[in-house]
């Protein structure tokens, strides 16, 4: 897909889209916010080709959304991809997209909604920023998406 470079555009929306306008970037961020860090797990969960995922992860590291961190595997060193503050700050964008999608698009299977759960609590929230059940503020570290199609708490 041909697209324009908006990295030096005066509009902050255009500059933001230059970084996060690719749908794969937002899906990788969703998984990173849920704790996924390893290439293989991203690949399996997202059902994405290796070359596509490699390019997106590299672009996200360059943009400061993720950082590479090495870990030692059984036979060699591998990279993990850890979400940065810049990546975590996109949580409200993902929440807005999730809420919009729940309201205006039809799920392929009835009752397969995505909800926001207060991590380490046994309740869900109708708000992404303040828990509607207990009133506590919600951040990327103390809330999680519950995706019925992917199993509980993932």
Automatic annotation (TrEMBL):
Pfam families: HxlR. The keyword Transcription applies. Transmembrane segments: none annotated. One of its GO terms (molecular function) is DNA binding. Residues 11-109 form the HTH hxlR-type domain. Keywords: DNA-binding, Transcription, Transcription regulation. This is HTH hxlR-type domain-containing protein. The lineage of its organism: Bacteria, Bacillati, Actinomycetota, Actinomycetes, Pseudonocardiales.
């Amino acid at each position: 897909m041909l697209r324009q470079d908006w990295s030096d555009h005066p509009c902050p929306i255009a500059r933001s889209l230059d970084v996060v306008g690719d749908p794969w970037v937002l899906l990788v961020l969703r998984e990173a916010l849920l704790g996924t860090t390893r290439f293989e797990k991203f690949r399996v969960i997202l059902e994405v080709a290796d070359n596509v995922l490699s390019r997106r992860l590299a672009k996200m590291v360059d943009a400061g959304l993720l950082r590479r961190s090495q870990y030692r595997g059984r036979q060699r060193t591998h990279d993990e991809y850890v979400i940065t503050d810049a990546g975590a700050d996109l949580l409200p964008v993902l929440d807005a997209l999730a809420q919009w999608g729940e309201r205006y698009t039809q799920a392929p299977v009835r009752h397969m909604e995505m909800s926001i759960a207060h991590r380490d609590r046994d309740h869900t929230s109708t708000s992404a920023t303040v828990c509607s059940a207990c009133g506590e503020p919600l951040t990327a570290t103390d809330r999680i998406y519950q995706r019925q199609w992917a199993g509980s708490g993932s």
